[in-house]
Automatic annotation (TrEMBL):
Residues 241-312 form the DHHA1 domain. It comes from the Bacteria. PANTHER family: BIFUNCTIONAL OLIGORIBONUCLEASE AND PAP PHOSPHATASE NRNA. SUPFAM superfamilies: DHH phosphoesterases. InterPro entries: DDH_dom (IPR001667), DHH_sf (IPR038763), DHHA1_dom (IPR003156), Oligoribo/pAp-PDE_c-di-AMP_PDE (IPR051319). GO terms for molecular function: nucleic acid binding. Gene3D superfamilies: 3.10.310.30, inorganic pyrophosphatase (n-terminal core). This is Bifunctional oligoribonuclease/PAP phosphatase NrnA. It holds the Pfam family DHHA1.
Length: 316
């Protein structure tokens, strides 16, 4: 019995299934969570299927979260999608169920759960969910709203099909989801739009991005700067890819100050893996897209130095 078959066996066994994803979600986190939930709701109409985590109004067009009592976790199967390590799981009750399954596409540096389906070669967790459905297409049904959610996840995590993780298989999955009713153009436009404060912050990024001699770049967004744009940390995700549009930039870091004066760090690269730097600073992720933390300004400087050294060592 392979892992996919084992997971389907557990899904069939449990009457209650609760699906989690990571904190501060992106389209793939919400998309994979929602896509799986909608597949299971239609395929097993007598089961109780729930999605939990903080409600994110900006992603309500992909899926809406449920509010459930603690008792619901009793004798439940818990599935976590798109989350590399347990501390990042949204809704901390994830370990209160009867069994825990991890479905993810990040490097499996911090394994958790009773069963793990991890495919690092996949463009997104949404792609993995579609492949799970397709493996059992004679037993499972993928409705239009699930196709919509999964395609939103794929478009988000591939950067509109621009990132290296986009494969021929990814495009086949996207085409299959479109055939099932997902509107690629509409979803792409939805993800491409930004509120006016974020658009104004984008101009600030281009004006204030520090680009070092070897191609590493960084931007520090303090709480004072964000206040000027009437934004919080959650509103900064849309500006993270922007430095990559500059030809001189090969890797970059965006530092966003938190209320406790620490920094959330987003690391990106066009070629050289930066996830090892992230691991040194309470983080991790994909080779070319990772997250980390900096407790103070000194750790910010340390990360900048490490990023600069990495680009220097790999300069052509």
């Amino acid at each position: 019995m392979n892992v996919q078959e084992e997971i389907l066996e557990k899904i069939k066994k449990y009457q209650k299934i609760i699906i989690h994803r990571h904190q501060r979600p992106d389209p793939d986190a919400i998309g994979s969570q929602t896509g799986l939930a909608e597949i299971l709701k239609v395929s097993f109409p007598t089961k109780e299927i729930f999605m939990v985590g903080k409600k994110i109004p900006g992603f309500a067009w992909i899926g809406e979260m449920d509010e459930i009592d603690n008792e619901v976790f009793d004798d439940a199967l818990v599935i976590v999608t798109d989350t590399a390590n347990a501390p990042r799981i949204d809704d901390r009750r994830f370990d209160q169920g009867d069994m825990l399954i991890k479905i993810d596409h990040h490097p499996n540096d911090e394994p958790y759960g009773d069963i793990m389906l991890v495919k690092t070669e996949a463009s997104s967790c949404s792609e993995i969910i579609y492949d799970f459905y397709h493996h059992f297409k004679d037993e499972l049904t993928l409705p239009q709203n699930a196709a919509h959610a999964l395609l939103a996840g794929i478009i988000g995590d591939t950067g509109r099909y621009l990132y290296p993780a986009t494969t021929a298989h990814t495009m086949k999955v996207a085409a299959a989801l479109m055939e099932l009713g997902a509107d690629n153009s509409k979803i792409g436009q939805q993800e491409n739009e930004m509120p006016l404060p974020v658009a104004r912050l984008s101009a600030y990024v281009y004006e204030n991005l520090e680009i070092m001699s070897h191609g590493a770049a960084y931007l520090i967004l303090t709480t004072e700067i964000l206040d000027k744009f009437d934004l919080k940390d959650s509103g900064t995700s849309g500006i993270v890819p922007l430095p990559g549009q500059i030809s001189d930039v090969v890797s970059w870091a965006i530092f966003v100050q938190q209320d406790d004066k620490s920094y959330r760090v987003r690391l990106r690269s066009k070629g050289e893996p930066i996830n090892e730097i992230a691991k040194l600073h309470d983080g991790g992720g994909h080779p070319l897209a990772s997250g980390a933390k900096a407790k103070d300004d000194e750790e910010v400087k340390e990360i900048i130095t490490q990023l600069d050294q990495l680009t220097k060592e790999n300069e052509v």
